[in-house]
Amino acid sequence: MNTVPEIFASKVFDDRVMKETLPKEVYNSLHNTIAEGRELDLSVANAVAKAMCAWATENGATHFTHWFQPMTGITAEKHDGFISPDIDGRVIMEFSGKELIKGEPDASSFPSGGLRATFEARGYTAWDPTSYAFIKDKTLCIPTAFCSYGGEALDKKTPLLRSMEALNRQALRILRLFGNENVKRVTTSVGPEQEYFLIDKSVYEKRRDLVYTGRTLFGAKPPKGQELDDHYFGAIKPRVQAYMSELNEELWKLGILAKTEHNEVAPGQHELAPIYSTTNVATDHNQLTMEIMRRVAAKHDLVCLLHEKPFAGVNGSGKHNNWSLSTDSGENLLSPGKTPYENAQFLTFLVATVKAVDDYQGLLRLSVATAGNDHRLGANEAPPAVISVFLGDELNAVLEAIEKDAHYDGAERRRMRLGVDSLPAFTRDTTDRNRTSPFAFTGNKFEFRMVGSSDSIACANIMLNSAVAQTLEEFADELEKAEDFDSALHELIRRTICEHKRIIFNGNGYDDKWIAEAERRGLLNLKTTPDAMQLLIAQENMAMLTHQRVFSEEEIRSRYEIQLENYVKTVHIEANTMLNMARKEILPAVSVYSAKLCENAEKKSGFGCKYEKATAERLSALTDEIYSAAAELEDAVARLDSISGITEEAFFVKDEIIPKMSALRFPADKAEELTAKEYWPFPTYGEILFSVK
Ligand code: ADP
Ligand code: MG
Q1: How far is the CA of 276 from the centre of ligand 1 (A)?
Q2: For the chain, which domains are there?
Q3: Three-state secondary structure call for residue 38
């Protein structure tokens, strides 16, 4: 077998390959373009395309595709052959610079939220040279951004790149104020920890709900769930180990730095974490990771469930978005420094982030809002739907001392004067309280824990980057005018802490008391997608996003439509699946079983028949309930058709359909508990959760 360094990035047209295969001037020019985020010119593109084509065909590729991330949430690709007729009737493999930098997929069936009328259905894809091309299944995939001909973004990558640019602009202004003249670029880095479930294919195929919706819509609690905490970090089963090994290898070939793997809290639940990288690359890699996870699972007769809440009453899956800011010279701006100046700079970026989270809570919340994630947030296992920032006791004490201009009660008692005093060395807070926070500072990065496991991390990072860019801009505007930088900075930081400390919460986020306290503090508690989405079109949020040039107003409105449409469609499919399962599987099975019980009772007449009679009676009552609840759900689903306007539809789904789905589930799960095993029509929670031996 090949060693890891040999296979790592073997399918990636990365810097090393470029250096080897490109003429020196071309390499330098491309390298500068990538490093400085500039536009590429066509002569360079032609030379790169030629080398890329040669490398790809040598490595077995026959096709190429512009690989992009439309608003569907998954990635899209349309394959074109490299093959081209030669004059002598033979063929050559070729690919031009134009084909590399621009593609024109027929875009009419991708969601655009009204941005692109179908008569002008075309959009174009443009190469993002900061994310390397790679080979997947004999196809050279070129990471691209996807826009309409009017220039409006139709994907998740374009606004992500714009938000990174916005942050870069403002962070550079701050660094200049600290006398930092050499830094050319500030980028955000992300390491997304991905949670998932693995179940056996045979149980999956017997469950229509898993097949159609990715989650179970029925299912009574198993006798053993996650109560014993014996799965977390437990020994990994051989079959899972084999899966993880192959997964790692496939990811490594694509240059994805998969690093840690362990069991998670629930049975059958696991986690994979990569080493962090630049946000757009991390986003591409996370999309690829999810795709490869599913694919490798199939090879092992397993199914990888990426849904946020595959099983009610069992921990759901999230994606922890570890986020930091760093300079092109490798300095992490969220890392506390050693000198007083470094400390002041660190505190500036820290409080700017705190302020950004407070000012734009709504945007952060809605950036992770999906029908799936609504089941998870606030369910006493995932962060609550209320956003707050965790800093830990020691760092919190530092901020309090600055705010009150008081003595800092650290190892040595003293006042903190920014730009003059050094920060006391503090250690990272790793208490359990930290783990319950939606947005925690973990030493040199923030961890945004609300992202759903199946979601792209693009949206969360778009909002985070834009919000921080906005606060940095306000800081820079104020500080650039200051006569005495040190005292202006001190005052700014003190004031920011004072104005935004309501968002800081270092206690237990799962505690109900916190929700009441958050309300007193005036923090938002947006429990569902329709509620959260209203904040996207709120005046102050639209103003910020357009001001940062991340979205145009039309783009925002189109995204509002798309996200709500997605919510409505998802729940609609779930409701229909429930009706189908209730009528075609559950009711017939329970009816047959009840009849069997009655038949047995008759046969046994003269003997005691308490069990048969009482059970048949309870099951009959439950089937009546299921029958009526199904009729009510069906009626609500039918009424959905007559509602117009996406906002109205979404609220109808939330207020009418979802409660009726719960009302149908309840008696069905009760019936499951009373029905004999061989009569129940599909695998139970216990059988699914413990299906991988
Ligand atoms: P934790 O113990 O907090 O989970 P880890 O060191 O295990 O921290 O890292 C978790 C994730 O955070 C990994 O994906 C890691 O690469 C990422 N990470 C570490 N440092 C940074 C950073 N400076 N910026 C962004 N992500 C980071
Ligand atoms: Mg973590």
Answers
A1: 6
A2: 4-155 (3.10.20.70), 163-551 (3.30.590.10), 566-689 (1.20.120.1560)
A3: coil
H helices of 86-189, where?
97-101, 157-177
Is the shortest distance between the CB of 406 and ligand 1 below 6 Å?
no
pTM (two decimals)? 0.93
What is the SS3 assignment for 323?
strand
Q: Which two tokens stand for residue 173?
A: 């202004």
617 token code pair: 């009676």
Taking the CA of residue 324 as reference, the ligand 1 atom at the shortest distance is 24
Q: Which of 78-82, 110-114, 179-183, 476-480 has the highest mean pLDDT?
A: 476-480
In 3D space, the residue among 290, 23, 7, 19 whose CA is nearest the CA of residue 132 turns out to be 19
Q: Which two tokens stand for residue 451?
A: 């992202």
- Give the Å distance between the CA of 518 and the centre of ligand 2: 24
Using the mean position of ligand 1's atoms as its centre, give its distance from the Cα of residue 505 in Å: 21
Structure tokens at 270: 């696991």
Please tell me if the CB atom of residue 275 comes closer than 6 angstroms to any atom of ligand 1.
yes
Backbone angles phi, psi at 230, to 5 degrees: -90, 0
**In this structure, which residue's CA is closest to atom 17 in ligand 1?**
191
Mean pLDDT of 598-606: 90
CA nearest ligand 1 atom 6, residue: 275
Q: Closest ligand to 193 CA? A: 1
Q: Which residues lie across from 186 on neighbouring strands?
A: 327
How far apart, in whole angstroms, are the C-alpha atoms of residue 186 and residue 468?
13
- 381 C-alpha to center of ligand 2: Å? 14
Distance between CA atoms of residues 199 and 146, nearest Å: 35
